[in-house]
């Protein structure tokens, strides 16, 4: 039987903690004296009120009887309900006209997708824009992980929730307690956010823009405070700095933790990391050659910089824009789609399929060919010198099938709702991979406002499903999940 009281208690704590983040946005609104003070204050009160009610209902919960089902349900409900409460500043302030639009914008933030329905971002007041960036920053590392780090009182449920929210194939525990793992991961995340803020601030950005872009860059989310995104600054310095930090955000945070503690070999010898950076380098050189020899960009340094930036913004699922790459042609669109599917490393802030799964699938395919000539050979899949169990390989194969199926199903639905083929495929891939820009009119300089409300609700669900690694969300929709 589901531990309902524990679920309510956890959700209540999530809401109460989330109120603190919303109050930070309220403080920004006070500083800039915008008209968003009232909607942010009202939204904070509503969120805190529901948090207290939920917590009181579950206060007598048995925290040690929570299992996998409770973990998956809490994570899914947390992302669903926090997006519902998180949309209130947009809707109550009148900055977004419809509930579907406000929910889409907030879910896109929390899932670090970065797709937007806003046609004039700069028209929003500072507090609401800061809240928009905060949703991505929280979603990058995960709200559950943050809560577990702050409040080590969840008993057996903490581990289940951590696994259900954290992206990756397996979850390495470099500390005996899950709360210690969560604290150190968030410590690394904070360090790089502050470092990037300083680097952007000494460039052409003011402090407000530097903080916002540091949060959305480390989260590999891509929300910007400007309509033109990163192109607004027209700065090679900003583009190189952000591209480098998008790569950092795409790297396994656990390995970065080891690297910063002097264990350099764990990161440098990691196969997934080497595959990721190899693909970044190779893709950058291919795209650079394409845009340079096609005469799209004639300056060699600019060709390299824009190619490097587009490759990193796509493979990191960040979605910042410096140029409109749609005129670059179908060849680049194909490269873009591949990068949007593969994405960064497991344990990073990226969405997408994850490079670790690509490594396992590639090695499994090589073994399949070897077995054609040596049918009796025992050929296990090895990553970093360790044998990957058949159970994990099968799970990766299942994930790949569901991942591609979800892209096709979403694209079919969007085409039924009136989208063109190019736009539907690009948007579906973007939503499942949490990348942000799509193709066609929904490319890096477009927005998603023209989709119907029904499509926006479906895309909101798909973005959450992709961010939580598909199994977490889809499993609770199966009848067997609810059986005793």
From TrEMBL:
Belongs to the TrkH potassium transport family. Keywords: Cell inner membrane, Cell membrane, Ion transport, Membrane, Potassium, Potassium transport, Transmembrane, Transmembrane helix, Transport. The keyword Transmembrane helix applies. Its main location: membrane. It comes from the Bacteria. Pfam families: TrkH (PF02386). This is TrkH family potassium uptake protein. It is a multi-pass membrane protein. InterPro entries: Cat_transpt (IPR003445), TrkH (IPR004772). It is found in: Cell inner membrane. The chain crosses the membrane at residues 12-34, 40-59, 71-92, 141-164, 185-203, 240-259, 275-293, 331-353, 396-416, 457-482.
């Amino acid at each position: 039987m589901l531990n309902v009281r524990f679920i309510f208690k956890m959700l209540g704590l999530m809401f109460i903690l989330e109120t603190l983040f919303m109050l930070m946005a309220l403080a920004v609104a006070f500083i800039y004296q915008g008209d968003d003070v009232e909607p942010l204050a009202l939204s904070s009160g509503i969120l805190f009120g529901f948090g207290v009610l939920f917590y009181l209902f579950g206060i007598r919960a048995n925290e040690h009887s929570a299992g996998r089902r409770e973990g998956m349900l809490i994570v899914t409900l947390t992302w669903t309900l926090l997006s519902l409460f998180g949309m209130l500043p947009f809707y109550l302030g009148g900055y977004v006209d419809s509930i579907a639009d406000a929910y889409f914008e907030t879910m896109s933030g929390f899932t670090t997708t970065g797709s937007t329905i806003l046609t004039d971002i700069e028209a929003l007041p500072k507090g609401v824009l800061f809240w928009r960036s905060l949703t991505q920053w929280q979603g990058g590392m995960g709200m559950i992980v943050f809560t577990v780090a702050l409040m080590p009182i969840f008993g057996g449920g903490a581990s289940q929730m951590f696994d259900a929210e954290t992206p990756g194939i397996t979850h390495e525990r470099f500390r005996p307690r899950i709360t210690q793992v969560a604290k150190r991961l968030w410590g690394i995340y904070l360090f790089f956010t502050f470092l990037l803020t300083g680097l952007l601030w000494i460039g052409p950005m003011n402090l407000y823009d530097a903080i916002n872009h540091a949060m959305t860059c480390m989260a590999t989310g891509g929300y910007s405070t400007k309509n033109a995104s990163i192109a607004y600054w027209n700065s090679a310095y900003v583009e190189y700095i952000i591209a480098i930090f998008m790569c950092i955000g795409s790297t396994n945070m656990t390995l970065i933790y080891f690297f910063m503690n002097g264990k350099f070999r764990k990161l440098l010898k990691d196969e997934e990391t080497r595959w990721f950076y190899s693909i970044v380098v190779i893709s950058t050189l291919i795209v650079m050659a394409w845009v340079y020899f096609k005469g799209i960009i004639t300056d060699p340094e600019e060709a390299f910089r824009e190619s490097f930036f587009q490759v990193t913004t796509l493979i990191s699922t960040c979605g910042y824009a410096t140029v409109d790459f749609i005129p670059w042609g179908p060849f680049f669109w194909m490269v873009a789609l591949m990068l949007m599917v593969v994405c960064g490393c497991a344990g990073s802030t990226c969405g997408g399929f994850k490079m670790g799964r690509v490594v396992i699938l590639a090695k499994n395919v090589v073994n399949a060919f070897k077995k054609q000539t040596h049918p009796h050979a025992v050929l296990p899949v090895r990553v970093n010198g360790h044998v990957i169990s058949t159970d994990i390989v099968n799970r990766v194969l299942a994930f790949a099938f569901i991942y591609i199926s979800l892209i096709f199903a979403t694209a079919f639905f969007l085409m039924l709702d009136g989208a063109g083929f190019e736009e539907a495929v690009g948007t579906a891939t973007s939503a499942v991979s949490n990348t942000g820009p799509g193709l066609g009119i929904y490319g890096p300089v477009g927005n998603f406002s023209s989709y119907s409300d029904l499509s926006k609700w479906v895309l909101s669900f798909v973005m959450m499903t992709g961010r939580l690694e598909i199994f977490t969300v889809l499993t609770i929709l199966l009848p067997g999940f609810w059986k005793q």
